[in-house]
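Hi L.,

As promised, UBA domain-containing protein:
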Amino acid sequence: MGSAKLKIGGVWSGILEVELEEWTIPMLREEIAKKSGLETINLICAGKLLKDGDGTEKLSQLGFKNNAKILASKVSIDQGKSVKDESLAEEERCTRLSRLKAAATSLSKRHADGSLPVEDFNLELENQSGQKVQLGTETDQRAIMMGLMLHTNAKVLMRKKNYKEALEVLTMGEEAFSLCNQKLIEMVDNVPILQIDMVWCYLMLRDISWLSVAGVRLAKAREGLERSHGKEASRLRLLQKGRYPEIALHLRLELLEGVVAYHSGQIEKSRKSLTSAQAKFLQLQIPDEALSLLLSMGYKERDAKRALRMNNQVVESAVDFLVEEKEKKARQREDDIRRRKEIKDQKGYGTTPLGKAVDLERLNELVSIGFEKELAAEALRRNENDTQKALDDLTNPEANASIQIHIESRKKKRLRQAENAVIEEIVSMGFPREAVAAAVRTFGTKQAALDHLLTSAATEDQNANDTLHNNQGEDGNANNPITDQQSENGSGANTGSSSARGPSHNKVEERDVEMEDSITGELLRGDAYSDYDIEVTEEGEAINEYLALVTIGDNVENRPSS
C-alpha cells in the first residue's frame, strides 16, 4: 500500500505523510503530539478513539487508507486523573482481594486444625437446623469454612451493588469448596447457592458473554439443590418443620433460567421459567394486614417480613417462628458466654507439643468420669489429646503425681510472673527495685504496694525494714524476679520428654486483624436462614422486564408477512 497522506485536525492541523505498512498508532500519536507541542493527546478516527493496543499492529492492518481523517484532541486534566484514579482503584481492589483470601485461609486453618483460638469464639459448621456438625477431615473442614467465609463476604459486596468484585470473591469461594471431598459437598446446599449468586452477578453486570457458562452453573445448582433439599424440597421441609425458606432462592433460580433461555432463543422455555418465577414472587408479597398485625405485637418490620416470607404468609406460623428465633438467640448468647469462658480456660491449659489446643470434648469426657479438670487437661495436653494415653497417666500413681507437681509448679510460676509484671510497672515509676519487690510481696496488690511506698518515711527504722524482708517469702526471689523472657518451663518444670513439659508456645502468627474481623463479623451475625433471606424487589423488576421481552418476541414471530 506504501505511503499515504493523513488529514489531521484539532490541536494540530495539516497533512501527515506516513508509511501505512510501517507506522503504528503509538508512532502516529507521538508524531502528532510532537507537532502540536503537547505531551499527551487523544486520536479519533471514524468516530472511534484510537488505542495503542500492544503497539505492534500497523496502520494498514487497522484499515487506514490514504486521505483518512483524524481528529487530535488534548487530554484533559480530569481525564488524566480519571485514568490514574482508575489504576489506583484497580490496584487497591487487587490488594483487598489478596488480603481477603489470605485472611480467610488463615481463619479456616486456625479454626479447623485444633489450634488454640486467638479470638474469644470458634467458627463451627452448622446444618440447616442450626445444629453443629463435623464434616469429613481437617482438610474438608478448612475447605468448607473458607468457602463459606468468602461466600459470606461476596454477599456483603452484592448488597452494596459491587457485583464485579463480588463475582471475583465468589470465584475464590468456588475454588475453596472444590478442595473438599465432593461426596460431602453434595450433602450441603452452599455450592448450589453460590452458583446461583454467580449467575445473578452476571445478570446485574448485564454481561451476556457469560451466557453458556451461566446455563451450566444453573443446571448444576438445580441438581445440587434437589440433592441436598430432597425432591420438591421434601427434606428441607422436614428439617424446617413445614416452613418454606427456599421460595425466594428458587424464584431467583427460575428467573435466571428464564433469562438464559431467552438469550439462547428458547422463548417458550423462557416464558415457562419466568411465569413460574412470577408466581413465586407474588407468593412472597407481604399482605399489609398480616404485617400490621405482627408490628402491633412489637416485632420489627424486617423480622416480621422475614417470618411471613418463611412461613408462606401464615401469621400463626410466623409468630411461632419469631418466638423460636428469639429463644434460639437467647440460647446462642448463653452459649457464647460459656464458649468464651471455655476458650479462656483452654488458653490456660496451654498447647500440646505439636501446638494444638486441649480438646474440650475429650476433657469433658474425662471430667465426667471423675477426674479433676485441670489434671485431666494436663494429661491430654502432654499426650496430644489421646484419651487412652491420658487415662493411662491419670490412673498411674507415679505419672499422676508428676502431673500434679507440674501443675502446682506452673501455678507458682504464673503467680511469680504476674507479681513480676507489677514490680516492673512500679519500678518504671522510679521506685528502687528492692523496695518495690519487698512491698509487692508483702502487701500482695499493686495498689497496696504503691500506697506503702508513697507513705513510707525515708527515716523508717531498721526493724520495719527487717519485717518487710522477713515477709518476702521462702523462695528468696525478691531481688531476682522472673523476667518476661523466662519460659514457664524454667527451673521448676519437669526435665523429661517434651510431652511432660509446660504448655507449648508457638510462634505468633501475623494476622490481618481488620480483614479477619470483617469476615467473622458478618459470619457471626448470620444464621441458618441467611442464605434464603433474599429481598426480591430486583428479581420482580427483572421478571417483568424479561416477560415483556418474551411478549415482544412472540408478537414479532406472529406478525403476518406482507
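The chain has a mean pLDDT of 80.

Thanks again for sending the construct details.

K.
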